[in-house]
């Protein structure tokens, strides 16, 4: 007599199959509603303080969306006719980039001079091919002594230059960014043909956002098919069955399609983080299929007909598959506490996929099994006698294995503190990518790519002309210039100093701020009236002349350095200019702070998920003792992984916070299956030693196989050029492998040493035991029994 659920699933398999296929078809329609959003802002909540401050600066001044073209001449000198002429041409061509609002280069730098009573403002370089060596030398001297240029558009030695294109992109940048990048690359291609000795590298905020988009598309097109191919090979190797492999692949595809299409129904855009959901789902769906198929084929080898073998497999696997799917989903849902929206989305999609995989395994797979399977393979894919040796080893040395495992865990965990958070927007991409190589070259040769910006309030309209205000702004800028790692401070006060010098006969002694409001207002008005179209000062001074924008460039800084620098700036405000206090803002600040916040927010979610999973295991195993003990080996793997990471790498990003949430539910699966087999073995044989043997021999191969599939699945993410996903994949893969080792060494040795605690009462008589065993084998398990007493009903 089989379990009623197994009987019902088999009896109604065709209607369930049809309903499931209709559900897949309906949900798949959601794919037509899918959208893609992959800029750096996806990582932040709309009310994130750093994002709000950054948006305020973008709205108040000109936006900071830009393309930076870094110029590297083969001769190592920007200042010759050919190179300056090339920059002139490139500056003109850059105006043709869609959404371009302003183009800054050393050739169109607005140099100022006084002719009589008139202020002359003109391009620093005009018609470069007609310039004499002396004129070029003069312009080089001006450029290399101009604070607004050096370390911004020209290197201190003049060997590298840059051209900055400021963009005014629409609110929805999805379509605009690819158009911009297509034009930028077209201009570079034409430029390279005309000036092969002047290399152009592309970086900036817009290329950064475009890299997010391109990596998302590339990873989707390569990693998912590659993982599917690997799974087909592994499943085929394990099951030795073409039909079993095909069935598994179909279940995987149904699970992935429904989960991803669900994103369209709930209005969740695809991004660089949640794109990993299909890879996660297809790896997790394999485990359910393998367990059900393995038992089914074992039944065929024993001479059962298809229906009987299928019911027997469902007797044994329905509840453990449900239990592991539930705990895995809870682990993913713990990511809802993440500070970063895309990780929460990943948790939702993965949980949906895991639960659909469970449903399809029970509703679609039975019908496919009966349709497509013909005979069982000759090889026993369930029982593996080789694991008997590992069981013997464990039984001979339980104390050594327990304390060595525990000591190793404690030793590794001790190195967790060696990890350092370093979230860097350009550092999220591997060094081989163009946007990363360009950023690294820029930082090494020209300027720091990390910035901090401030909107310094004067307190009133036209207040930026107040001498007292200007002095405070200049003091703040000079303070920042003295800070380590700061390469450049971009401030309008430098323009006013230059104008004051110009209006006083270019006397170097007058390179200082105007001493009166009238002079400051007049200089600013004269300067603005002389500027050509597109070269206004709105990128530095707001429309009401009530605030100035300060941009600080930082070189070689890690996340903690940026945070510390901003903290020191706030201390400077508090001590010197409390009325002018402004929050530092920029993508650099945003990414520097998100990692720590993400860890803090995920701690609560992980703790809650651990408690819920523990309660489920207590109920499922029918014993609070086994429930508590089952959690112990699952608490170590992620911590051990972080310790090992601290020893050999020592640098993590915001992905580290969600590793515990992702792996918590997954690593519990191995423990549940091992304990289920242990309980069945104990039920049949009545002693711990034979129960350990039974568990190793009957579940060892399946656990190894599912671990290989899962670790390879997440390991595929390591091939991503997006470092957040790559590091996440490596960490999760390591954790899953460590969990298996712990379940094979620490868990059985712990159960052997604590056997009296686990089984305080003597086993039933041989007659009772035999009767119980018969009921278990035949599936005669009453629904009212505790799950822990149902042996393999778990």
Automatic annotation (TrEMBL):
Specify one Pfam family: MMPL
What is the superkingdom listed in this entry's lineage?
Bacteria
Q: What Gene Ontology terms describe where this protein resides (cellular component)?
A: plasma membrane
PANTHER family for this protein: BLR2997 PROTEIN, MEMBRANE PROTEIN MJ1562-RELATED
The SSD domain sits at 246-371, 627-753
Q: Which residues cross the membrane?
A: 222-239, 246-267, 273-296, 316-335, 347-373, 401-417, 602-621, 628-648, 654-679, 699-720, 726-747
Q: How does it sit in the membrane?
A: Multi-pass membrane protein
Q: Where in the cell is it found?
A: Cell membrane
Q: InterPro entries under this entry?
A: MMPL_dom, Mycobact_MmpL, SSD
In its UniProt entry, what is this protein called?
SSD domain-containing protein
Which UniProt keyword terms apply here? Cell membrane, Membrane, Transmembrane, Transmembrane helix
The answer, when asked if Transmembrane helix is one of the entry's keywords, is yes
Record has Isomerase as a keyword: no
